Predict the structure.
Amino acid sequence: MTAFDREQDDTVALRMTGVTRTFGAKPGLMQKLRLAPPQPVVHALDGIDLTIERGGFVGLVGESGSGKSTLGRIAAGLLRATAGKVSVFGHDPMAGREIHRQVQLIFQDPQASLNPRIRVDRALSEAPLFHGLTKPSEVDAYVAAQMTRAGLDPAFRFRFPHQFSGGQRQRVSIARALAMQPRFLVCDESVASLDVSIQAQILNLFMSLRRELDLTYLFISHDLRVVQHVADRVVIMYLGRIVEDAPAAEFFANPNHPYTIGLLAEIPDLRQRRKVFVPVKGEIPSPIAPPPGCHYHTRCPFAFDRCRVERPALKLVAPQHLSACHLNDTLGGNPTARNKGA
Amino acid sequence: MILWLIRRIAQAVLVVFAMSVVVFMGMHMIGSPADMLLAPDATQADRAQLIAELGLDRPLLEQYWRFLVSALHGDLGRSFVYNVPAVTLILQRLPATLELAFSALFLAILFGVPLGLYAGLRPDSWLGRGITTGSILGFSLPSFWVGLLLIMTFSVSLHWLPASGRGETVRVFGVNWSFLTLDGLRHMILPAINLALFKISLVIRLTRAGVREVMPLDYVRFARAKGLRPGRIVVMHILRNIMIPLVTVLGIELGSTIAFAVVTESIFSWPGAGKLILDSINALDRPVVVAYLLVVVTLFVLINLVVDILYRFLDPRVRVEAAA
Amino acid sequence: MSVTSATVRPVKARAGTLRRFLRSPTAVVGLVLLTLLIFGALFAPQIAPQNPFDLRAIDVMDARLEPGSKNLAGDLTYWLGTDGQGRDLLSAILYGLRTSLTVGVGSAVIAGVLGTVLGLIAAWSGGFLDALIMRVVDLLMSLPSILIALLLLALLGKGVGNVILTLVLLEWAYYARTARGQALVEGKRDYVEAARGLGLPIRRILLRHILPNCLPPLLVIAALQVARAITLEATLSFLGLGVPVTQPSLGLLVANGFQFMLSGEYWISFFPGLTLLLAIVAINLVADRLREVLDPRSLR
Amino acid sequence: MTAPLLKVENLHTRFRSEDGTLDAVRDVSFSLAPGETLGLVGESGSGKSVTGFSIMGLIDPPGEIAGGRIMFRDRDLTQLPAEEMRRLRGNRIAMVFQDPMMTLNPVLMVGTQMIEAIQAHERVGKAAARARARDALGAMGIPSPEARLDAYPHQMSGGMRQRVAIATALLNHPDLIIADEPTTALDVSIQAQILAEVQELTRKRGMALIWITHDLSVIAGIADSIAVMYAGRIVEQGDVDAVLDRTRHPYTAGLIGSLPGSAAPGSMLTQIQGTTPSLLNPPQGCAFHPRCARMTPECLRQPAPEAGADHHMVRCFNPLTGDPSQPETAA
Amino acid sequence: EDLTIGFADPVSSIDPQLNNHAGDHSVSQHFWPTIVGQRTEGGLIPGLAAEWKNTDPTTWEFKLRDNAVWTDGTPVTADDVAFSYQRALDVPGSVASFKSFLRTVDKVEVKDPHTVVITTKAPDPILPINLSSIYIVSKHVGETATTDDYNSGKAMVTSGPYAFVSYTPGDRIEMKRDDNYWGDKQVWDKVSYRYIANPAARTAALLSGDVDVIDKVSVSDIKTLEDNNKVKVWSYPGLRVLILQPSFNPEPNKFITDNAGKPLDKNPLLDVKVRQALNMAINREAVVDRVMRGGATVATQWMPADTFGYDPDHAEIAFDPDGAKKLLSDAGYPEGFKLTMHVPGDRYPLAPETAQAIAQFWSRIGVQTQVEVVPFSVYSGAANKNEYAMSMIGWGNGTAEGTYAMTSILATNDKEKGLGASNWGRYSNPKLDEALAAASSEFDDAKREAIIKDAVKVVMDDVGIIPLFHYKNIWASRPDLKVVPYNSDRTEAMQVSKAE
Ligand SMILES: Nc1ncnc2c1ncn2[C@@H]1O[C@H](COP(=O)(O)OP(=O)(O)OP(=O)(O)O)[C@@H](O)[C@H]1O
Ligand SMILES: Nc1ncnc2c1ncn2[C@@H]1O[C@H](COP(=O)(O)OP(=O)(O)OP(=O)(O)O)[C@@H](O)[C@H]1O
Ligand SMILES: [Mg+2]
Ligand SMILES: [Mg+2]
């Protein structure tokens, strides 16, 4: 253990408080002179509070554009938050090599995240050598060990990424991350591009690695089934905000937020045959001009006046179960109850 | 849009300024035009007098300053050789060059696009392969050589077309045009082909590459899945999308076509600006060279402007970004 | 944990670049031709019957002899005839090829390195330096290149070195633009972010990760620019600038023979022209195929 | 049972390339009645899309349909002249592709792309066609359809584009629609919306539907029957309940087993070892044998399709019993 | 009947007094009279002046004919002549002025409307020859006209065999016969005078029937054209000579080095033996035959045979490489030395090719010669400063008599007197300077010719210049036309007639 390790807060892997991130071009001369309308600003993240305990496996779910990747990249130190505080093991993830090494991001598309012109052996050894995790004399064995751990035959070390199948490529990118001896893995849709049979292989790999290496996971996905299988805590995002956050079992048993309930209803299920699909009403609003109040009110079947003006706070609705819905404050209470019968 | 225009023009002015400095310096370093211009029996006194008349006896900086001042007043000086305002001289000759360049461009599109389309749509047919390989030839042949071959074949041996010169012209808007008379057209064919050869190859290749790129895209497949007629697919879905790179490249190429007209013009004795500029460089006729480059750069800016506008028209994505 | 070894995608499906290159018959023809020509150029002093640059070796009395003629002394056969100076054309072509290829390859390599470096610097630095470099590039690209070449050569004087210098000055902009554009595109790709995630320093990412991925299009441009440079040199020679007459390049041989085209002494410019043509076609064929096999899409 | 609308018999589609000949689809047969929904399932590269394109007549050189028949009503589509095939395409048979971002031409307005689809098959005035296009958009649940007609694709979200594509495919009320993973790239909520709309059309108009996917659970909800493809062949085929509840092919069983929803959270998922074989040189015999736990020496030969009860076909020498009470898997 | 001529020399303007350029001259000949005419065959002929005489060594009286009229109907008078000579001196924008032709003129007086009296500063026997190069424009139009007015046609009130129709700069001049012309009536109704710079293009234009006559036929095409029965070649000895000028600069010159490349501390060219060696090493016949393909005649002095001042005693320079080698070693250069010869690439036909052939010959006697071809724009400046070791000049002896070249290329360079302007090698020989001075004031033609012939001997014994060959003037035409030389190498419609 290095001095660095000892200093850090060892029980919390990730802590985000009030993290906001906006995107948008810097105003040009024309905007400054008010000759042109201001550049549109995208609120990718809007006041995120999130804490992941060490060893946790958090599934982050949300629709496309809800800010999942942005959150993941901020956690991995690849992007700076516009506002708010981020710490990973007690450090700013953008500060320094050591913390960089400890958080690793695994991307959705293994094809795109592997440099097509770099052989596996170099992909796996370059950064560890740079960070002093192995010595040039031992690098062969090191690479072989990483590959074996990720379920790849070390004999493939001289291949280029395109010489692998999709699942194998994802294993390569996992091996590349593991070679950095991380403690925290951010998986951004890491299984979304894979076939179901391959997806199962990779999910199994994640689960066994977690046990072997005592890893913390932030697992981003839009597939609730996957999250349900692997995560022990589920966080739901909608348009840059967290709307629900609960332990997995509790979450699937007692979902609270209307959006979550809608999502759960749409999960395809092998057991449901000749189902009658019900179209969800309303369009997903644009993150450029999110609706005021609760972002979900435009599609929410239970929306009432307060939802249109006031942003609901994330509140405890059960032990360890947070939800951001005004319905919890009303007398009628939790919409879950109402929905249970349906 | 206005800002963009202003920026463009400012850039152009900068380019022209830099250009004129370089040309001024360069021409000064090559030699004195007096040595070129004077009759061989001219005496040293004649020489000194001429140099004084042309203002070449002054320090270079002062010469440049004088040029700059009068340029700002719209006077780019008189040609040393022709004793005519340089701009007048260029404007007299430029239409002939432009006419040639545009004809070449026209031919390039006329032949290049259909051939390229064919080669792209049927890459494995022998004709498609032939077109592709043939287009390499168009790249490889030095144009002066082709020019002479054209003359030898079509003028000298077959007597089909005239070998040189511009033929009969008609004056419209104060400018002489060849394409309005039969004789003028006949004179234009060979030089235009000569100049167009490289462009035709270029257009063929661009079109072909574009078709090959666009063809497997889902939206073309979807267009076919809609049951559209092949003609409509080619025109609306394939061509429309290829036009974007094509217009960009052709815009840039029009400039180089004007420049490369130097070669064609000297082979076909085409009385255009290319020949003039070549002679002027040889004669160190600085005002003409500077004015020519100025006019050409201005032309370039205009062409780029047109290309940008076309681009906006062709690609809605750009249009919206610009509006935002 | 299972090790998936049995079912890797067979390598055959994605054969090596060279193997894939060789699958196109026209490209093979081009490659063979190019190899032959380069061989001829490299070993010109060994192969050529005469040193066409040595004035003592050539005799004006042998000027314009038909292909297959013997020289005055009868100890030398001019297989491709002689030019207006009595130079053995075969030798002149071999040496000329040397000059032309030197000009072409030399200018392309120098301009390529210079342009790529500047392009990467522009992409990497952004801001003012980027704007500055790109404006210079715009300026160069918006100038009529051949006229600038004429001016430059009039200023610098003839010579292989000066021609190369001129071409470099004109051509680097193309590489800079492509390199910058490509670097910007590549820079947005996931693998770059992945490399950042691995904590690698920016410069290393730029040079070892992004640059290799920018190279294929640059290589293709370079191959085409070699051809372009050779033709441009020929054109400049035709216009009276270019390389010295006593050390003719292919282009100059063609240009010199140009005056004999109408007089029936076709060989003086025909054979050099043919060689020039073959060389450029060969380069283009190879470049075309390179473009295909190096296309990143074929890897991705 | 009504007369089949579409009957595919022993379809064989292949691609020739520098690397060799690739049999993307071999010996594929199935039939489809009006109003019926067939789910075509399989891993990436198993030949699902190629099957769809073969029916559409959209196989381009170097690809070709090397054998078999595609009977649509009473006509063999493989023999149809190009012009007649064109008139069927988009009119009687329509197709929607996977990637919503790419199916629409970026430089043409949505309206233009829809109107041309109508005018390719019918002599309709522009205004009338436009009105139809607008209605079709509205039916897909797109707000302010009139304005959307003048939008460019890039001005729309992915879900909206995909709905435009589906609306376009449905414009001429086709008898058959082939949906090639049209919802894979979309969020669940939008997926449900699209499924709802497609479902309504099959119900109301008697439109037949081929839904292509790699995810069994998606089609469990809408399909009447399922065909599972592996390496270009259909390995199991039958009624949705039969295939899912009385699974007989080890591969199908593997697919079901690897779905996260089917195992207890946190437990290891049953997985199929290895990866999809290359079709350029597929394994000898049953293409699945290298990954199959039930492999026997016999499997080095190609198994013949074996029809069981209620047309439940399987192509396997060692099929599972099909008894739901004893779940057997490939691992 | 119409005639189309394709000509080679560029025209800078159709203002006849702007520039003393070959192309301008050719054009002006059609439109403008001169006071005295000149013909290649037969020297001076009457022009506007039917007769002229010296009243004393410095006074000339010209009697103008009275039937000459301008195209606007006004008669041509002595005022026009006086005006024209004045204008020729100070026409604005001239870069190659006609001044030198009037260098000796002191004043021009109008005695009566048809008599002009010209006084010279010193006796000038060749004044009429010089005046034959200056065109007379009309005073009443010319007084207010600028060069632009001539170019636009506004001031083209002419009095020549042809009248102006149109001028397209860089392309062509159209003209029609002037029926009021006082001289011989012309054959052609209309003449189209087209500028075709490239020699191959000219030949092609003739072969394709675009034009009827071309001038300055490329020597490489002569044979083809001669063999072609659809065209006819007209080739005549010309007055332009191609000469090498060795540098007489005593300073070390970077273009003359020893065989190792070190500059020699003494210029070997100062040694007459070396010059003789170089002169003898050249096989002029071979050059004329192989390089010039018969388009030239061997030059042994600066004037061709049968011209005023040609010395038949110097009709031969022996080709003797062995003798040359011996001379070299006598001079102290048994191993030879290295020399770079400069030649303009865009000025004299086949000059680079000729230079290379010479270089071959010199290299064989041990003088390893490099040829550097440079654009004339660069060449002229450097040559003028005597920077080159060996330069080449093509000299047009337009006046067809020997002193013209002597004044410009042989006389000791003297800025004050305007002598030796093109003496690029700075050759200086007092004997020649004396001869030139004597000839310049000698009115007796026979005596003058003798002086010039002596000068030839002086220069050629001294090898002050190395003459190479005289260019022939070559035209080609349709077979039914006849082209005769008229005024040196000028090309005019008047030269072309129908063949019987
Ligand atoms: N670099 C960027 N510049 C501008 N906008 C961005 C940038 N990155 C993300 N955004 C915007 O921020 C919002 C959130 O994006 P993000 O990628 O985090 O969403 P996501 O939840 O990961 O979606 P998906 O499921 O599609 O991956 C989106 O509207 C997106 O368009
Ligand atoms: N145009 C083509 N040229 C060559 N091979 C092709 C072509 N189109 C498809 N193939 C090959 O045919 C096989 C089947 O492809 P197909 O697209 O039908 O798979 P799929 O089942 O739709 O897969 P996915 O789920 O990835 O869409 C693949 O191996 C593919 O590589
Ligand atoms: Mg994302
Ligand atoms: Mg598919």
About this structure: The domain at 1-21+42-64+79-223 of chain A is CATH 3.40.50.300 (Rossmann fold). Residues D 15, 17, 22, 24, 42, 44-50, 63, 214, 279 surround adenosine-5'-triphosphate (ligand 2) (CB under 6 Å). Chain A touches chain D through 47 residues (CB under 8 Å).
